[in-house]
Design goal:
alpha/beta; Rossmann fold; two-stranded antiparallel sheet; 24% strand; disordered N terminus; disordered C terminus
Length: 324
């Protein structure tokens, strides 16, 4: 069989919106596998390939929030996968503890399992889809955002290309971190050596207690992270509006958010993450240029996107803000 690397290397005039589904049909592959000393449930979303031509796709490790099932992110995960990414979401142990040290350690075990086992595991389910483990993206929501940045600080994971935080949270009150502390509250002090993206919720700091308190959430992460880093904030959506509707309906209760469907937030966040990953590991900046410059066309109302620094020159990213 021939092997193809299809990451949208070129961008044709009039590229489609990243908020629409990508060109790949997605197959979900739920598995329970031994990783380190634990049996771990993985929710894997895989872009499928037609015919007998094998394709290789970059891999995304997606970390869920505190006491949330990995399957509650199926809409965002599927959206990202439809743009040509194998998304692996491990379910972490249900430990009710503010200390995330063990969770970070357990999450670090996953990329090493992926390196050794993902291709052979997927060959049983989707034989034409092959992982490209030379490109690994880390994405996490809430406490999972803290986890992926903790993984980045650890510095032992091979081939990490980028880290994305969806309303990452590093504490339970204003300025009060939970261990291990990720933020240093010093501008540009969190240097992970890769481009990063922060997606925040405008309603996250509200509630009693807030689910994404000021000074330990998305704004502080953006402040601390060294360039290049980009930030989008959905003004009228809350901390748990990244999650699926219906099955995960009870996740609305702890956090203020939209009273309607959360689908616009899922389309936005899935789209902006897919666009950013295309720019970083796909060498196609068309989608991210569009979502950054034309931010007013997003399916949710956004604050003006922020950036510190620029992506490496070979990415050819052009993201001037629109004139107000």
């Amino acid at each position: 069989m021939m092997i193809s690397f299809n990451f949208f290397f070129t961008c044709l005039d009039g590229c489609t919106s990243a908020y629409d589904n990508g060109p790949y049909t997605v197959q979900n592959v739920p598995l329970t596998v031994p990783i380190a000393q634990s049996l771990r449930f993985l929710w894997i979303a895989v872009p499928t390939v037609e015919g007998d031509v094998e394709e290789k796709f970059p891999v995304v490790q997606f970390q869920h929030g505190f006491l949330i099932m990995n399957t509650c992110y199926s809409q965002i995960i599927s959206h990202i996968a439809s743009y040509g990414f194998i998304v692996v979401a491990p379910q972490m142990d249900p430990i009710i503890s503010v200390d995330a040290t063990k969770e970070i350690s357990d999450a670090i075990d996953v990329p090493f399992w992926l390196q050794a086992n993902l291709e052979s595991t997927l060959s049983l389910e989707v034989p034409e889809t092959k992982p490209d483990l030379s490109k690994l993206a880390l994405v996490g929501h809430s406490r999972g955002g803290k986890v992926v940045f903790g993984m980045g600080k650890n510095g032992t994971i091979p081939n990490v290309s980028t880290i994305v935080g969806l309303d990452p949270v590093d504490g339970d009150a204003n300025g009060n971190q939970t261990p291990p502390g990720i933020l240093t509250f010093s501008e540009n002090s969190l240097n992970l050596g890769v481009p990063t993206l922060i997606v925040g919720s405008g309603l996250g700091p509200f509630g009693f207690p807030p689910c994404a308190p000021e000074n330990v959430s998305h704004e502080q992460f953006f402040f601390d992270l060294s360039e290049p880093v980009f930030q989008f904030v959905a003004k009228d959506y809350g901390h748990n509006d990244f999650l699926d509707d219906v099955v995960c309906e009870l996740t609305r209760l702890p956090c203020p958010g939209t009273l309607g469907s959360r689908m616009p937030m899922q389309l936005f966040s899935g789209g902006v993450v897919a666009a950013f990953l295309q720019a970083i590991v796909g060498n196609n900046t068309c989608f991210f240029n569009d979502v950054f410059i034309n931010y007013e066309s997003a399916p949710v109302s956004l604050e003006v996107p922020q950036q510190k620094g620029e992506l490496p020159q070979n990415h050819n990213l052009q993201v001037p803000l629109k004139d107000e």
